[in-house]
Amino acid sequence: MIKSEERLSISIYLSIYLSIYLSIYLTAFIIYLSIYLSIYLSIYIYIYIYPFIIYLSIYSIYLSIYLSQVNIIYLSIYLSIYLSQAVHYLSIYLSIYLSIYLSIYLSIYLKPFIIYLSIYLSIYLSIYLSIYLSIYLSILVFYYLLFKSHRDPISPSVYFFFPPSSLPFFLSLFFLPINLFQYVWFLCYSIKTFSLT
């Protein structure tokens, strides 16, 4: 039978493996999410500000026509070109700045949450797997000792509880008792065998 120290070491190894795996997986997920959001935000801001650029260009043309009546044609053309280019570059810089800020903010804000989630899931899964493994091995060892001490013919339904040794370990997991009635019946059969001997 597996000792408690071995079960504890298995649970510790499982928790360390799960914490490393979850931290790597969730960090990659946050990187992809920040890249996606930065690209989406830059495109969205550019599309949103582009009509404003067109409006300013039209307004600058109107301003140039208005100023041409006052014989300031060069100034109006310069202002129209300057305003359109300035707003265009402003939209690009604003989209890049907001995308970088959002990616940094998401990475900083979600990193503690990823660490806590990975630690919690690793501890929970390691405890659950260690309990399940200890119960399963205890039942198998009990049945093995029972059959070894009593070399009586075994009923065919017993193989649902104790699979043949020729099967692989992971395939024998499918032979575990599912029905509670069969489990109670087998315990009654074992008690009866003990009482007869």
From TrEMBL:
It comes from the Eukaryota. It comes from Acanthosepion pharaonis. The lineage of its organism: Eukaryota, Metazoa, Spiralia, Lophotrochozoa, Mollusca. Signal peptide: none annotated. This is Uncharacterized protein. The chain crosses the membrane at residues 12-33, 39-58, 65-84, 90-110, 122-147, 167-188. Keywords: Membrane, Transmembrane, Transmembrane helix. PANTHER family: G-PROTEIN COUPLED RECEPTORS FAMILY 1 PROFILE DOMAIN-CONTAINING PROTEIN (PTHR23304:SF189), SPOT2-RELATED (PTHR23304).
